[in-house]
Design goal:
Elements: E1 2-5, E2 19-20, E3 26-28, H1 36-44, E4 49-52, H2 68-86, H3 93-109, H4 128-144, H5 149-161, H6 171-174, H7 182-188, H8 191-200, H9 207-215, H10 236-250, H11 262-271, H12 279-288, E5 297-300, E6 305-310, E7 320-325, E8 331-339, E9 348-357, E10 365-372
Antiparallel strand pairs: 1-4, 2-3, 5-6, 5-9, 6-7, 7-8, 9-10
The structure holds fe (ii) ion (FE2).
Fe (ii) ion is lined by residues 163, 191, 216-217, 245.
Length: 379
């Protein structure tokens, strides 16, 4: 399977990994053959890319740190929680903690040391996919940092609930295309405080989880919000959540900027390590998160276009790739695999965009000019 931008999907392509709605229900299941109506729906809902089957990459399997079934359950519980909060209720901690234990079990027993997120994000879903991603990333980082299960539980809870306060913001504000006014910006900057209040609405709340939610937009140099805390005033677990939040938020299109590639999001964190973000957390992320996940189309230093087919443990920046086009953009008759851990003179330059076509027969061909990924500046 390969990951293809929604703008490149064609009727006849087959879904290779389930696409979930914000409430965790399945929008498109594995094996569904895309129609124009399905593609239109994906566009409407703001999805950016999905995994489709491809005969050149039948042997590629992606593996998310969280099973689809578990993710579905977490998103459903989060969705129910938001409904309850909107009616003035509180968080049902028994339910949330129960599913969090399952998430923890999966993450702690996962033997891989290089990971990436698979679940397709929609730019219109600012809470559900994002919150699960931030929780999973935070827990993976926490695991790599040898945090105790108790600490991980608190970290996971805070990360999962960190953006709940957004439900109090007017919906049009979250998707506004123009620059925010001063008043609007001040309102958005209240959401960590509201998240904390919502977490604390139920007397069974966990204090540290509410601190994580409150501090997830604070930055080491004091430039964050809501209180402009700096250095040691920001709890270590809040710093993990902050990095996971920024990483995930940057990789989604926003009305005011194009999405960052996964590599660019890591670059952004690295470029601001020690100043905005905790150096130890950023270093851990760079060591363990794949900048070019499985299924990603990339350009090599040779000018060739390739697709990442397998990750190398210990060296996420040098995966095994399958070269599909020569430096002149011509499809190779026989694609070949290149292990960048062994081929040290070749490296990945960045992500690439390729136009994919569905011909009349079963096989796919690709044509058109692959372009270097055009990125945006940091936020
Ligand atoms: Fe936030």
């Amino acid at each position: 399977m390969i990951r293809i931008p929604v703008s490149e999907l064609k009727p006849g392509m087959k879904v290779a990994y389930p696409v979930l709605r914000e409430d965790g229900s399945v929008l498109l299941n594995r094996g569904v053959v895309l129609t124009e109506a399905y593609i239109q729906k994906l566009r409407e809902l703001g999805f950016q890319s999905i995994f489709v089957e491809h005969e050149l990459f039948e042997d590629i399997a992606v593996s998310e740190p969280l099973r689809v079934e578990t993710r579905k359950r977490v998103q459903r519980i989060l969705h129910d929680t938001v409904r309850r909060l909107r009616r003035g209720g509180g968080v049902s901690y028994r339910e949330v903690l129960q599913v969090l234990e399952e998430v923890l079990d999966e993450i702690l027993t996962n033997p891989t040391t290089v990971f990436y997120l698979v679940q397709m994000q929609s730019r219109n879903d600012l809470i559900f996919h994002h919150s699960v991603n931030v929780a999973v990333l935070s827990l993976l980082v926490g695991k790599c940092l040898n945090l105790s299960r108790l600490q991980l539980r608190k970290l996971g809870l805070g990360a999962l609930l960190h953006d709940l306060g957004k439900v109090r913001l007017p919906e049009d504000l979250l998707v506004k295309e123009q620059n925010l006014t001063e008043d609007e910006r001040n309102l958005v900057r209240m959401h960590p405080v509201w998240s904390k209040e919502m977490i604390q609405r139920n007397p069974d709340y966990d204090f540290l989880a509410s601190v994580i939610a409150l501090q997830h937009h604070e930055r080491l140099d004091g430039s964050g919000y809501p209180y402009g805390l700096s250095g040691e005033e920001i709890h270590f677990l809040s710093r993990i959540c902050a990095c996971a939040d920024v990483y995930d938020a940057l990789t989604v299109d926003r009305p005011y900027r194009k999405r960052f590639s996964y590599a660019e999001a890591l670059e952004y964190l690295m470029g601001n390590a020690s100043r905005l973000f905790d150096l130890q957390v950023v270093t851990t992320m760079v060591r363990h998160i794949a900048p070019y996940p499985v299924g990603e189309t990339v350009r090599l230093t040779t000018g060739e276009i390739a697709v990442v087919v397998r990750l190398n443990e210990g060296l996420p920046i040098r995966p095994v790739v399958r070269v599909i086009r020569d430096p002149n953009g011509q499809p190779l008759e026989k694609p070949r695999d290149l292990d960048l851990m062994k081929e040290l003179t070749v490296a990945i330059v960045g992500t690439a965009e390729v136009t994919w076509e569905v011909p009349q027969k079963r096989s796919f061909v690709f044509f058109g000019g692959g372009t270097g990924h055009d990125s945006d500046s940091g936020e």
